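FORM 7B: Structural annotation worksheet

SECTION A. Query
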Amino acid sequence: MKKSLLANAVASLVASFGLVVSSAAVAQAPANVQPVAAEVMVMTATVNSVDLNKRVVVLKDANGNLTEMNVSKQINDLEKVKKGDLFVVEHAQAIAIGLTAAPKDANPGVSGVRKVIVSAKGSAKPFEETIDTVFATVKINTIDTKTRVVTFAMPSGEMQKVKVDPSVLELDKFKAGDDVVVVFVDDTAIGFVTPQKK
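SECTION B. Predicted structure
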């Protein structure tokens, strides 16, 4: 379940559906990194109708509001989506797997993004998951060494909050205002599920 599944789905869902729930879950990380508990945002909506020819799914929120969503052609098995299915978006809090002091002459910015997309062709319902590993030079805005949560501003001005993995040592040596090189994993999943019968 994930990001590319529907190009602007996350943005439109956030704007249209106020169904956000926090829960503890295990975030996905590269195989050589131990996963840690992270906050996961879960948004759901019910499928109201599916137009296979136009590849348009109409979603209904808990208040009965309807939103149309265009589904990319690269998403497989749209014909398996039926009225009454749930559309689910999950986004795990970003996990920092590397944090080091930035060189004095380092320019702030994102130096690279490694993207892994998992798509389930032939599964019960279409879904896609995207895991981005981001390498960036940033300035720490806030840091809580007890909860191991660091907030910094991305070059776009967007504030990014990350949970620092326990494998990153000597976190207490960093403070607000420090320029650092951070490597963090961002995981989002998007897909459809059949609701469980009560």
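SECTION C. Observations
The first helix runs from residue 9 to 16. The first strand starts at residue 21 and ends at 26.

SECTION D. Sign-off
Analyst initials: ____
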